[in-house]
Amino acid sequence: MRALYRGVLKRELALAFQHRAELVQPLMFMLMVVTLFPLGIGPGPETLQRIGPGVIWIAAILSSLLGMERLFREDFQDGSLEQLMLSGLPVSLIAAIKVFTHWLVSTGPLLIMSPLLAMFLNLTLDMYVALLLTLLLGTPLLSFVGAIAVGLTVGVQRGGILLALLLIPVFIPLLIFATSAVDSAALQLPYLPQLAIIGAMLLLAIAVSPFAIAYSLRVSQN
């Protein structure tokens, strides 16, 4: 059984790296958003520091939406998703593996690039540490929750707009808590309560989302 799950994981990683252009696209989008903001509002250090966390998190949400549509798209189109669902493996675990792989290949480079983004927006070290912690906790939450909506819209032609309409309101609480944590770090205030809330949301998503994704995929297949 473990060998089958490892096989699914290797397959997902191989498929992800076969489409390098699609992997780079969300990162380039995020980099452009973050670098264009200082040009649009002016290079004032205090202004950039004040809006920086919100800019990075909004760019992270939008870039994740940009790459999320392909999570189940190709598997649905070529019939391999149906084969996976008929393989006898729990669909919830297959969905969790696919979401983890998507998060790893799409958000891992973002975390590596985060010091550069923090430098662009004049964030202090304390602000950057808080930002990195919120990204580590929050971006998997984006992937798990977003995958539910992707499963529901996988059979819809041009479902990207519908996906954005469904998910942006859901992501607003995460955006509020994440930027609040970085703002607290800027004021030298404790931000563990905000991290605890994001962590609790992530744990709930890990526990519930795989089953919700499996159900949404079954609905889309019917």
UniProtKB/TrEMBL annotation:
<keyword id="KW-0472">Membrane</keyword>
<keyword id="KW-0997">Cell inner membrane</keyword>
<keyword id="KW-0812">Transmembrane</keyword>
<keyword id="KW-0813">Transport</keyword>
<comment type="similarity">
    <text>Belongs to the CcmB/CycW/HelB family.</text>
</comment>
<comment type="function">
    <text>Required for the export of heme to the periplasm for the biogenesis of c-type cytochromes.</text>
</comment>
<keyword id="KW-1003">Cell membrane</keyword>
<protein>
    <recommendedName>
        <fullName>Heme exporter protein B</fullName>
    </recommendedName>
</protein>
<dbReference type="InterPro" id="IPR026031">
    <property type="entry name" value="Cyt_c_CcmB_bac"/>
</dbReference>
<feature type="transmembrane region" description="Helical">
    <location>
        <begin position="125"/>
        <end position="154"/>
    </location>
</feature>
<feature type="transmembrane region" description="Helical">
    <location>
        <begin position="194"/>
        <end position="217"/>
    </location>
</feature>
<feature type="transmembrane region" description="Helical">
    <location>
        <begin position="161"/>
        <end position="182"/>
    </location>
</feature>
<dbReference type="Pfam" id="PF03379">
    <property type="entry name" value="CcmB"/>
</dbReference>
<dbReference type="InterPro" id="IPR003544">
    <property type="entry name" value="Cyt_c_biogenesis_CcmB"/>
</dbReference>
<keyword id="KW-1133">Transmembrane helix</keyword>
<keyword id="KW-0201">Cytochrome c-type biogenesis</keyword>
<feature type="transmembrane region" description="Helical">
    <location>
        <begin position="21"/>
        <end position="42"/>
    </location>
</feature>
<feature type="transmembrane region" description="Helical">
    <location>
        <begin position="54"/>
        <end position="72"/>
    </location>
</feature>
